[in-house]
Amino acid sequence: MSLLTKSSFWTFHGGVHPECHKAMSTQRAIQTLPLPKQLIIPVQQHIGSPAELLVTVGDTVFKGQPIATMASQQLGATIHAPSSGTIEAIKKHNIPHPSALDGLCVVLRLDGDDDWGDYQPIAYADLDQYTNKQLLARIETAGLVGLGGAAFPSFVKLKNSSKKGIETLIINAAECEPYISCDDMLMRERADEIVKGLQVLLRLLQPTRCLIGIEDNKPEAIVAIKKATTPFDNVAVCAIPTLYPSGGEKQLIKILTNKEVPDGGIPFDIGMLCHNIATVYSLYNAVIKGEPLLSRVVTVTGDGVKQPQNIETLIGTPVSDLIKQAGGYTEKAQRLIMGGPMMGFTLPHDAIPVVKASNCFLIASVSALQQTKSPHALQAQMPCIRCGKCMVACPVNLLPQQLYWHTQAKDFEKVVAHHLSSCIECGCCDFVCPSHIPLVSYFRFAKSELRSQQLTLEKANISRERHEFQEFRRQREKEERAEKRLKHKAALQRKKASAKGKNPKADAIKAAMVRANAKKVARAAEAKANSVIKKNPQDEAKGES
Amino acid sequence: MQFKTDSSPFVGSVSHLGGVMRQVLYALIPAIIVMSYFYGWGILINIILAMIIAVSFEAVSLWLRQRPIKAFLSDYSAIVTAVLFALTLPPLVPWWILMVGLFFAIVIAKHLYGGLGYNPFNPAMVGFAVLIVSFPLEMSQWLHPRWEEGNLPNLWESLQIVFKGTHELYSQDQWDSMTMATPLDDMKTELRSHYFSEIIITDSYGWVSGRAWEWVSIAYLCGGLWLLYQKIIPWRIPVALLSALTCIALIVNLWEPDQHQTSLFYLFSGATMLGAFFIATDPVSAATTPRGQLIYGACIGFFIYIIRTWGNYPDAVAFSVLIMNMSVPMIDYFTQPRVLGAKREKS
């Protein structure tokens, strides 16, 4: 297929070339961490809502036993005990999240046996024996999420696509962030397992073609994956030019297929699905070997650790254990970043656990993070001169200079009109700004401000509706009361009137009076007596109306 | 272990404002050399005096606005404004002309609007426009460029002219004979009674325009191309400006052959090249979107032609740029590029 073997690709708008620093962590093979004493396992490690606990303090759990799972119809993934031990506590603990807020965690004291117990995995040797449903169920129970960083539940992603089928399967192995090399090492060392995982995907999704995008700064990985995928003629390994952020889902799709994912949409909208290469590897673990997602490969790197390397570690391992494995801190350890230097976030201390989404822990000095000869650390922020370098660098074709201008003015209407929602916070604009403006921070501020405005608006709408309904209800009650009163009045008067007609005593008195009058009048004049008698029926008529 | 927190990206830019502005200054060097050759010491005196005055105004304004003086002076923006402004003035203008122009450029057009990055109008052009409106005589007396040795005043004489005026050294007649109108002005007057092809072969014209001016323009062009190569300025503005000017001149010439200035004449005379590469590309006051830059540049080219041909002023770059500065917010708003994945607009 000529389409698959082509060596030139399309490109996305913008992008930058940060220094890679990947070689520092690829000198050693992937190391396995000895069993830690204690694991801290957050109950939410995925996009969606937190999982519901299945265990209580004091329970003994086996390796691979679910300790928290999703209620039905909730978006999320099951969490398993990564090793056997006792639940020591269930409490709020610092979790690796940009908000730096605490999250509910299960603290598991390991017994060191690493015992599968009742949860011994059952391997699926031959995929053809099993139905798609069985395979999907295995992915769901394994608690698989996207390991590239977003941690979207894989089952949900695959379920929808496997129903309708897709045209192109994209495997994201670009790994464009500087410093990170976990996918690179995984491809170099475990290409065969990755391909087995890929077979599961091909089987489930039946795509016409599968494109594996790898940045060309990882030649060993490209060779390994190319070799392992030779038997498949609809799978192509694409060595794409190194350009940050080519690992962004939409950017990678643009590079490989020249198609654009609709703004606000997902790749599935154009018949594609994108999976991270590390996710594909854990698909192999989950489906073929039957092991849930208990561990992952994490890069521990930077000039802040003595021996930067990639470590296969259990989910929940405290970062401090990884640092020990990496030879401990150097005196340059000034920042602890989860993720890369472009899009990662800092952690306040190293007692924070590894989660499913942790791909890298970067420990570095502030100056080492900067590019060589960068005056950034020394230079203050200057005003924007609208030079447009950010616009040229923006991978989604935004106008960061205009967004910044309107954000500064807090003119959020204009900010929305300039498509802030499309910003992926990749940091390219910051990276090129000659005025050293922290643009991404401004955009995050604008996004949170817009969100809180939206919430306030919704709240205000609800109060308005409630107020309007209250007014309506009051009006209605008032009307009802008035109607009631009117009816009541009418009834009373009717009663009065009918009483008038029925009371025999009054009639007798009236009759007597009439008679008396009649006598009086008859005595005076006959004509006058007639008029008095006529008056009575008129009174009755008045009373009834 | 505890760590300080921060927000991404943690990698910063290698370029900085001062560096960008310095590149612009380097790109002006060829033009300064060529102009100094043709017009003598007056050019350098203008530039140095303008730099001193501009930096003083800048420092005082920053001090009054309670801004960090050192940080903002080291961005070189005041010096760039000063040099650009000085290059638009005739050599040997009185020192107070520079004072007045730069006061409007630096204090009024720049700092009253909020300083660097906030000025809607190009400061150098505001200064120039104020002067050409207020002091048309001083602003239109250009020395005869160097034809042969010895027709230009030496350094000492130049300084005397600048600070004391001309009357101590020269009589009014002498001074008048030393100065002339610019080729742009001269051509406009002559075209009333002659054909273009007749005028261009006279003594004060070279191959395509004024004898000194064509070389000055080429020097600006070289500097501008270097800026383009360094990616300091966007290509769209100069390309749009020069092509619009060329096209309009071509069309008018086809309509009435030989009765109007040719495209080449307009491209290589006056401040066309300076305007296209150094003035219209001032990022602060120019349009910033790709399509917007094309529109902005083309409109400046259009207005340059209109004002030069039918207007009253010797050159039109300043007014054209200022007119378009006004339209920038609107142009930018309506020419936003298509965001990745957004639907293509129906055309």
Quick structural gist:
The complex is a heterodimer of chains A (545) and B (347). Chain A has 545 residues and is an alpha/beta fold. Helix content of chain A is 41%, strand content 15%.
Strand content of chain B: under 5%
Structural class of chain B: mainly alpha
Helix content of chain A: 40-55%
| Cα separation of the termini of chain A | 97 Å
Sequence stretches where pLDDT stays below 50 over 5 or more residues of chain B: none
Distance between the termini of chain B: 59 Å
The H-level CATH homologous superfamily of the largest domain in chain A, spelled out, is NADH-ubiquinone oxidoreductase 51kDa subunit
Structure keywords:
heterodimer, A: 545 residues, alpha/beta, Rossmann fold, Fumarate Reductase Iron-sulfur Protein, Chain B, domain 2, 3 domains, six-stranded mixed beta sheet, four-stranded antiparallel beta sheet, 17 helices, 17 strands, 41% helix, 15% strand, elongated, disordered C terminus, B: 347 residues, mainly alpha, 2 domains, two-stranded antiparallel ribbon, 2 strands
How does this structure look, described?
Chain A has 545 residues and is an alpha/beta fold. Chain A folds into three domains: 2-346, NADH-ubiquinone oxidoreductase 51kDa subunit (Rossmann fold), CATH 3.40.50; 384-502, Fumarate Reductase Iron-sulfur Protein, Chain B, domain 2, CATH 1.10.1060; 504-544. Chain A contains 17 helices and 17 strands. Chain A has helices at 2-5, 132-141, 154-164, 182-189, 191-205, 219-229, 249-257, 277-289, 319-325, 366-369, 389-393, 400-408, 412-417, 428-432, 439-502, 504-524, 526-544; strands at 31-32, 38-42, 52-53, 60-61, 66-69, 79-80, 85-94, 102-110, 168-173, 209-215, 235-240, 272-276, 295-301, 309-314, 335-338, 345-346, 360-364. In chain A, the strands form four sheets. Chain A has a six-stranded mixed sheet, with helices on both faces. Chain A has a four-stranded antiparallel sheet with strand order 2-8-7-4, with no helix packed on it. Chain A has a four-stranded parallel sheet with strand order 11-10-9-12, sandwiched between helices. In chain A, a hairpin with a 6-residue loop joins strand 15 (335-338) and strand 16 (345-346). In chain A, helix 12 packs across helix 15 and helix 16 (504-524) runs antiparallel to helix 17 (526-544). Chain A is elongated and about 140 Å long. Chain B is an all-alpha fold and 347 residues long. Chain B has two domains: 16-180, no CATH class; 182-332, no CATH class. Chain B is built from 17 helices and two strands. In chain B, helix 2 (41-64) packs antiparallel against helix 4. Chain B starts with 16 loop residues before the first helix and ends in a 13-residue tail after the last helix. The relative contact order of chain B is 0.11. Chains A and B meet through helix 7, strand 15, strand 16, helix 14 and helix 15 of A and helix 1 of B.
